[in-house]
Amino acid sequence: MRLRFAPSPTGQLHVGNARTALFNWLLARGSGGTFILRIEDTDAERSTRESEGGIVRDLRWLGLNWDEGPDVGGAHGPYRQSERLHLYQSYAKELLGADKAYYCFCTTAQLDAERQEAVAAGRPARYSGTCRRISRDQAAARIAGGERPAIRFRVPEEGDIVFSDAVRGDVRFHADVIGDPIILRAEGPPAYNFAVVVDDALMAVTHVIRGEDHISNTPRQILLYEALGFTPPTFAHLSLVMGPDHSPLSKRHGATSVAEFRSKGYLPEALVNYLALIGWSPREAGGSDDELVPIDELARRFSLDRVGHSAGVFDEEKLAWANRHYLKIADPVRLAELSLPYFNDAGVRMTPNDAGTAFLAFAMSMASASVDRLSQVPARLALLFDYDAATALSDPRVREEMGAEGARSVVTALAEELALAPRLDRERFRAVANQVKARTGQKGKALFHPIRLALTGRAEGPELDLAVPAIDRGADLPASAGIPRVLGCRERAAAFAQALEEQ
Ligand code: GLU
Known about the structure:
Blueprint: E1 2-5, H1 15-30, E2 34-37, H2 49-62, H3 85-97, E3 101-104, H4 108-120, H5 136-144, E4 150-153, E5 160-165, E6 169-174, E7 182-184, H6 192-202, E8 207-211, H7 218-228, E9 234-238, E10 241-242, H8 258-263, H9 268-276, H10 295-301, E11 312-313, H11 316-329, H12 332-345, H13 354-363, H14 377-385, H15 389-393, H16 396-402, H17 407-420, H18 426-440, H19 445-456, H20 464-475, H21 489-502
Parallel strand pairs: 1-2, 8-9, 10-11
Antiparallel strand pairs: 3-4, 4-7, 5-6
Helix pairs in contact: 1-10, 6-7, 9-11, 12-13, 17-18, 17-19, 17-21, 19-21
Glutamic acid binds next to loops.
């Protein structure tokens, strides 16, 4: 099988298009086939290299690698349509020669007027065929006279076009509703329907999976395949990705592009897994019930016959659910590295070296099981860097909890125990907590709440078993680690006890 993703580089990669790319990739990889990236940049005004670069980066980030494409080459290149103009010209000439295409001299103004008239009369707005009857000699004379015609495909006058869509079943169009489409514009660039047929045929594409917004183009393309003597591929039209109100997912629903979801702090494996679930299910007949499946396993299980054709709604809650799963199982060093931009955005500037990264990775256990997205990591780890006893005690909730019976004695005992203790790991922390318990007679909440307030400066947060060792590991880091200063538990307890005294 040979499959392709053919984006137009006119903006950012939309998640709906990323899903199209993914389904093509899954089928190619699952079948041992080839995945091709082709850049459809014939619209010179709207296409940019910057957008192409962004799409390439986003596809790579998602892990959708290709075997042939503009950057990696391949036997069927070039893979940018702007570099294939000679091919479109030559196939258009072939159609002209066989009288399957003709020159069209109609001006934009004429065509606009024709369209408006048809719409006003309630007729389908299709080309009326004005230039169909111009003879070759007449056309040659007009070109010699300086006119620059477009080339139109002569759509056969009768018959239905029927194709079997791998997702939607048999699809039928009447030829008489299809006006003769332009295949080559007067200025030279090919029309989408023509370029796509020439390219898919020459690139030996066997399966075209794309959005159903293209389904009305498919009969034109099938006619062009036939006229050029090529065999059409299998088509599969995917229902579009919708917003919660069941209109196509767009800016007014919020984030729409892969880049936006990346910057919100979703992991690529979560986005890929979630996109695969829109309109398809990895659940195997009689197999495991699991929807959270790594990409290679998705590819192994993927088949077009289990792709549904009802519209899929993009549900960010479900994406967050997938993300939580992948955050929990991700390598903490990777999460530490991926979190850096979010720390810097939150004003916690850092440029960690290996020891600094190892520390952050260690601290990540406080966050990775309890956040939806990487952008929430800095808030979750803020207790490492922003400790200040006086600020903590200015929080009414902290003050209220410190007013509880026995709370002060816990803090005093904690400060005294820590003054003599080495830096804490989990076991040492438990031993110290037991000492404080023995000295004060407090237990449970009455013991651990004051300890939490004194050591983290807040009434809520991660488990102390995770936070305390992380704080003390941070406190031992040299400045060269590139991490902002972390005040140790000993110093925190002393400062908190002191601030309480001064109240
Ligand atoms: N360039 C077209 C698009 O981005 C490709 C459509 C197709 O796959 O044929 O919509």
